[in-house]
Every structure is written in structure tokens, then in C-alpha cells.
Amino acid sequence: MPKKTVLDPQGKTVKHALESMDFKGIKDVRIGKFMEIELEGGNKAELQKKIDEACHKLLSNPVIEEYTFEIQ
Amino acid sequence: MNFGVIQFPGSNCDQDAYHALADILGQHTRYIWHKDTTLGDVDCVVVPGGFSYGDYLRTGAIACFSPAMKAVIAHAESGGLVLGICNGFQILCEAHLLPGALIRNRGLKFRCEHIHVRVETTASPFTNACRKGQVLRIPIAHGEGSYFAEPSVIEQLKREDRILLRYCTKDGAITDAANPNGSLDNIAGICNERRNVFGLMPHPERASELLLGSEDGKLIFNSILQHAKAGRHEAVSVR
Q1: What is each CA distance from B163 to A66, B23, B127, B143, B199, in whole angstroms?
Q2: Cβ contact A61:B94 at 8 Å
Q3: Least confident residue range of A42-51, B144-153, B176-185
Q4: DSSP letters of B107-139?
Q5: So what's the ipTM on this one?
């Protein structure tokens, strides 16, 4: 997700569109990315560490984005 | 001087950069494939514009892990000159050779037009042939050129005189209307702390001959040549 401090023009445009369609009470819209990654092997703690590193190094840009992930 | 132009899958300004350097400026120039692990005898490496790796994930995100970029990072760390144009600027930010990031243009549109930038400092290997405050007319062509960094980083860039170019009106006024993409502080180009790495969104290689409507971009390349020449004189005087 883009950080709160980063301008998200896509989110803004979608917010305006929703408002023009009479969807009431929309305070803010922000647009991010959703990724599904298939994993194999390893215990949950190890995978947790690995995915966190992948998010930090490649999947997100910490300068402009924040990330969360869950392993199912 | 020896120039190298990196070619990624999806680069599309590599030939423009090559043409400007080899044909207009008459410099030894060669292409460097993204899988190459060394840059050879290159003095200045150009990371050109385009859509490296299809802009997948984020602009520049995949390119910065390529073998050639590892060599570019090593080149930069040893003091070699690096010029990142447009997608090249995005790649240098992703590679952490320059701070900040380039995000989607404020107006969501891909902007492809001639704009004006003001030279904020001549104290760099990339702007020393310009006058301070000189207005250059150079084209842009990007969808993600809005420069963003934390306020502390912007302050540091200002304090260290590292903002080399800012978007301006044709008279040199820094206004919001002259900002084509929403970049913070109208930033169009910055350098690193050591001043040997420069990234900019405008395309100087597309404005290096009058046939193309402007040769203001040539000043950037002439600066690099002038810097190299001064360096050689320095080396001679030391001896």
C-alpha cells in the first residue's frame, strides 16, 4: 500500500468516481497491490522471515509503500 | 571518453543515447547488455529510458537486480560517473544509488512534451557547462515521474546542493503550473552525496541537435566531457 504521506492520484480519482455515483460517506481511497505467492517446505517462522525479507527487498519499495502479509 | 549504455529488455532510449554520445559528441560509446557482469573500460555509464522488464512490479524494480546493475553500483561506489535518464532515474532510485522514488504522475497522464528545467547548481560533473539559473528546454516522456522523498531527505538534498534541475516556466520561475508530474519541490533531477551519480526525468539525449528542436540537452553531455578533461589536467598537475 502507498504510505499515508504519499500522494495516491489513482485512489483520489476512484474516490471522486464513487462520490459521483452517489456512494456516500467515503473518506479516502488508496490503491495498493495484492500478491499471492505459493510456498513449499520450511517451518512457518522461517517462511515468515523469508517473506518479510522479500517484501522489504523487492516486493515493496519502503520509500513509498508499506506492506503486510499472512501465511496460510 | 568511454561511454557505456545499458540495454535492458524494454529499454527504448538506448539508441537515442548512443546516437547523442557517439554521433553528435563523437565519443567512444558501446552498449552493455543487462546480463553483462562487467562494464569494461567505461568512464561514464548511461542507464537509459524505456520500460525495463515491462515496468513489472514497479518501474525499475526488477532492473536494479540485473547483473549489469551490480556492475553499475560497483562503478558508482568506486567514483565512476553514472547518468540515469527517465527509467534510468527510476532504476537508480530503486538501486538506492539515489534517494527517494518516482511515483505515478499527479494527473495520472503519460506526459510527452517539451518542458523547461532550471539549472539549480553548476557544481556537478553533469551541469558544470551550464550557467546557474539557466533554463533548458528538454522533452519529458513518462507516466511515473513524480519525485517523492521524506521531508528530511528533501531538506538534505537542498542543504547539500544536490537538486541539479527543477521544472520551471520558460522564464525560469518555479511554479506549480510548470510542474508536469507533481514532483516535490519541482524536482526534475538530483545527484548523490558524492556527486558522481545523476538521475533526471527529462531526456537530454533527445535534445542534443537542432534537428530535434533543441540542443539544450547537449549541455549535460558537454558538462561530463568538461569534467573528464578537468580531471585529466588535475592528474597531470599532480605529477
Answers
A1: 27, 29, 11, 21, 10
A2: yes
A3: A42-51
A4: TSSPEEEEEEEEE----STTTTTSPTT-EEEEE
A5: 0.86
The nearest CA of chain B is from the CA of A38 a distance in Å of: 17
What domains lie within chain B, and their CATH numbers? 2-238 (3.40.50.880)
CA distances from B161 to A68, B158, B184, B195, B200 (A): 36, 5, 16, 10, 15
The residue type of B122 is T
What distance in Å separates the CA atoms of residue B163 and residue B121, rounded to the nearest whole number? 7
Q: How far apart are the first and last CA of chain A?
A: 20
Place of cell 522523498: B149
For cell 538521475, the residue is B199
> pTM for the whole thing?
0.94
Residue to mutate among B58, B111, B144, B181, with most A CBs inside 10 A, is B58
The rounded distance, in Å, linking the Cα atoms of B114 and B239 is: 46
Sign of CA dihedral B175, B181, B185, B187: negative
Residue B147 pairs in a beta bridge with B102
Cβ pair B65:A58 closer than 8 A: yes
